[in-house]
Each structure stands twice: as C-alpha cells, then as structure tokens.
Design a protein that fits this description.
seven-stranded parallel sheet, alpha/beta, disordered N terminus, Hypothetical Protein Yjia, Chain: A,domain 2, 325 residues, 10 helices, Rossmann fold, 16 strands
C-alpha cells in the first residue's frame, strides 16, 4: 500500500541574547522576562555566562525557567563558545518555547553571531535577537574598556536603557548610541516583555519544510509578530567566495557594502600572495588597514560573514558576484 508522503516537521527555537557591560542590569532584566513568559503559560531555557560563579545567579532563576545552564569562569565568545553551542543545540531540541542567553559583561557578541550563522542548519534557532542593556549612569565612561561596550552595542538588534529612574538626561546618550548603531530599535521594558512572549508563542506553531513557500495560505507556518515592522532581527549571513582575488577588489567590495552591514569578516586568498589565506574586517564603514594571515585547513571555506539588521541576502549576493566572481 502506498502511503502519502508526510512532510518533515522542523521545530524552530527563538532566542534572545542579552549583552551589556558589567553591572548594566542584564540579570535583573532576564528575571523580569522569565517571569513574564511564565505568567503567559510559556516555558524558557536559560544559558547564563559569568566569569565568576554563574551557578549563584542561575539558582535564583530556577523557579521561573524550565532549565538553567551556567557557563562559569569562562567567556562564551572564546573558550566557552563550543559549550554555548552545545547547550543551544540541546535547547533547540527541547519542548521549551524560548531560549535566553545572557553573556558576561565583557563578552564580544560577534564571534557568537558568526558561529550561529555558520551552524544555522544544525542549530535551528530563529529568530535571534540581541538586546544590548545600556546603563544610562555609566555608558561611555568605561575608560580603557570603552571599546568592549562599543562592540556589544554594534551588532544589537534592540537596545534597552536601564537605571532610568534618575535625573540623567538621556538625549546626549542616545546621540552617542546612534553614532555606534543607527539601526537598532530602542525598546521600553513593556515592549520588550511583549516581544518576548510573542516570540515564545510563535514556537508553539509548526513549521513544515515543504509548505514554507505557502506561508500566506498555511496558518501553521511561523509568521512575524504584528510589531515586526517596528523592530529589527538580529541577523547575519554567510556568502561563499572564490579561491582568491586582488586585494584592491576586495577592499572596493567591502567599501560598497551597504551601511546596514555593521560588521563584515572576510576569509579569502589574495592573488599576488599565493602562500595562504587572509582575513579582512569592516567595522561600521571602516575597513581595517591591515589583513591577517591565517592558517586554516580546507574544512573552512572562503567566505564572508556579514552582520546587520534585516540583511537583504539577494542584493548582497548580487553585489558580491559583481566584484568577486
């Protein structure tokens, strides 16, 4: 007897990544987000990263989270990255409705964004939003560590201002923020709580791999929340590149990338330097003057990782092909 084909069912896990400098109020915000999702009848997993004892904070969240996994005495953007990815895969396969990841106060989110992009098919985590928590009392006053605070803000999809119950005028601060990241949505606590519950509720729908092209007709497909037009997704993409190209052409292409590409990292060979491959970077609109020689095996392809809000993959691919074909 011939049975009808049953389409593959894919479970998609939404994620909110919380970044922000030491003491900005990330864990306090996380606790309120977890309480909100629990009150809505939803369950969430938590991955908590801390240089000190993450188990201390995680124990205070256990009653309002489905699971809490501490990443202690390590940094999720470097030596703890593999463990973070393992825990994320575990969460994506669970029945929970949402994943929260809180990074430690000095972590750079860019390597995490890149890794989630490279492992897109395996992780099944989408959408991925990065909420940068900014302490209005101390932003821009980190001394030698100010660059870290800037890194945390550059790739954010949403910005949340903490400690606003003061007499501080946030106008000048917002001007500084917009100079670093002009694309992120600045959200209030109530908006953020609503967005988190909307994301979690979306997980309860089923995404069929074979009917996703008919999203408008099929109510079972995950759709964007009603307020999506007011927000940006924490997005990134990988574009495969040829074996080598001239350095001038690579730099011209980097310069012509749209302003919405906040960070770009490019691994490629240089035509007149056949001894290996090189790493180019662009932060904002500034291209690093120096290239870094890297020793990587063939398992890592020549490619560009582009990070920014709501990236238009088709136009980026067309631009890349016109320069680096």
């Amino acid at each position: 007897m011939n049975l009808p084909h049953i389409p593959q069912v894919i479970s998609i896990q939404p994620m909110i990544l919380l970044t922000g400098f030491l003491g900005a109020g990330k864990t306090t915000l996380l606790r309120e987000l977890l309480t909100s999702t629990k009150d809505a009848g939803l369950v969430a997993d938590v991955i908590l990263n801390d240089y000190a004892d993450a188990a201390l904070d995680s124990s205070t969240l256990e009653e309002i989270a489905e699971s809490v996994e501490p990443l202690t005495a390590t940094c999720a953007c470097c030596e703890g990255l593999d463990f973070l990815l393992e825990l994320s895969i575990k969460s994506a396969k669970s029945s929970s409705d949402l994943l929260f990841v809180e990074l430690n106060g000095t972590a750079d989110p860019v390597p995490i964004v890149e890794s989630f992009t490279l492992l897109e098919d395996k992780l099944k985590i989408h959408p991925r939003w990065q909420v940068c928590v900014i302490d209005v009392r101390n932003f821009g006053q980190r001394g030698a560590y100010r660059d870290i605070e800037t890194l945390q803000l550059q790739t954010a999809s949403h910005i949340y201002l903490s400690h606003t119950n003061t007499d501080i005028d946030t106008g000048p601060l917002l001007e500084q923020v917009r100079e670093i990241n002009a694309h992120a949505s600045i959200v209030s606590k109530s908006e953020l709580l609503e967005m988190a519950t909307s994301m979690a509720k979306a997980k309860k729908r089923i995404l069929s791999a074979q009917c996703s092209a008919n999203a408008e007709q099929d109510p079972a497909v995950i759709k964007k929340p009603d307020n999506h037009e007011k927000t940006h997704e924490f997005t990134s993409c990988q574009i495969l590149l040829p074996a080598h190209c001239s350095e001038n052409v690579i730099r011209t292409w980097l310069a012509e990338l749209p302003s919405g590409v906040i960070r770009a990292k490019v691994l490629i060979g240089i035509s007149d330097k056949p001894d290996g491959r090189y790493l180019f970077e662009r932060v904002g609109t500034e291209i690093s003057p120096d290239v870094q020689y890297v020793k990587l095996g063939d398992r890592v392809p020549n490619s560009a990782i582009l990070i920014g809000p709501d990236l238009d993959l088709k136009s980026l691919q067309e631009l890349t092909s016109s320069h680096l074909s």
